[in-house]
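In the design runs reported in the main text, the only information available to the sequence generator was the tokenized backbone. The following block is the verbatim input for one such run; it is reproduced so that readers can re-run the procedure and compare outputs position by position.
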């Protein structure tokens, strides 16, 4: 038995949570009235679920209403802006739908009251969206500091590495004020390089850092840079990273 009124209410709330999540995620300037109106308009395709229409037609209708919902909630500025809104509407809805399906099949089968199930899922959906937003924002802020770099060493081949811009790396050569980037020493044939010892002081430690003088570095989307040192370290404890960039190196570009 299908409760049409519950289905519509549930859909409006899900649409509202999704659009609100996209608004926060992409920092869109809008208001709650527009989001609510867009949420209501987004329930219209439910009508076609009760009609004898093909799945292809239903898909086209859903895509069309996604565009309409985006324009109502966030206005139309250009095609890229709108497509980005729609993309995040779908990714957010997929995350919520998958999470709700998991909860519905794993945690709620013992509850036979359909109304109670719907209420629980409606209450859970904002929490799921908040988790999604936080995880995406963390991903964006983290991976915005990743760079592809090419490092040219003397008497050695070019190194193609994944680098991370660490705001905590402010190591400077005290002799010539050169910024120091950090690389796993296993990536470099140290025997072919001239080693210099550079004193360093951090909050937790101090000592002498083994460094080499490279020819230059190319940072993707930024350009070439010279006059810096490479500090050798045992491990770079950041996922997928071989090199830690120095903030001073980028400040000078």
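Verbatim output:
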């Amino acid at each position: 038995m299908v409760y049409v009124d519950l289905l519509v209410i549930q859909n409006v709330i899900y649409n509202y949570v999704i659009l609100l999540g996209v608004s926060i995620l992409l920092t869109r300037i809008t208001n709650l009235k527009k989001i609510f109106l867009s949420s209501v308009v987004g329930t219209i395709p439910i009508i076609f679920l009760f009609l004898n229409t093909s799945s292809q037609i239903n898909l086209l209708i859903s895509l069309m209403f996604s565009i309409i919902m985006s324009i109502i909630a966030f206005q139309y500025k250009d095609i890229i802006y709108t497509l980005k809104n729609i993309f995040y509407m779908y990714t957010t809805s997929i995350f919520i739908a998958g999470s709700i399906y998991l909860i519905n099949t794993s945690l709620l089968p013992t509850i036979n009251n359909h109304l109670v199930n719907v209420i629980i899922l409606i209450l859970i959906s904002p929490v799921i969206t908040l988790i999604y937003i936080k995880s995406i924002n963390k991903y964006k802020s983290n991976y915005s500091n990743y760079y592809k770099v090419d490092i040219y060493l003397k008497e050695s081949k070019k190194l193609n590495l994944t680098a991370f811009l660490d705001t905590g790396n402010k190591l400077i050569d005290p002799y010539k004020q050169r910024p120091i980037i950090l690389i796993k020493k296993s990536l470099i044939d140290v025997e072919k390089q001239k080693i210099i010892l550079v004193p360093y002081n951090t909050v937790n430690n101090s000592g002498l850092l083994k460094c080499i003088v490279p020819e230059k570095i190319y940072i993707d989307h930024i350009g070439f840079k010279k006059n810096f040192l490479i500090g050798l370290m045992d491990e770079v404890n950041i996922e997928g990273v071989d090199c830690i960039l120095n903030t001073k190196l980028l400040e000078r570009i």
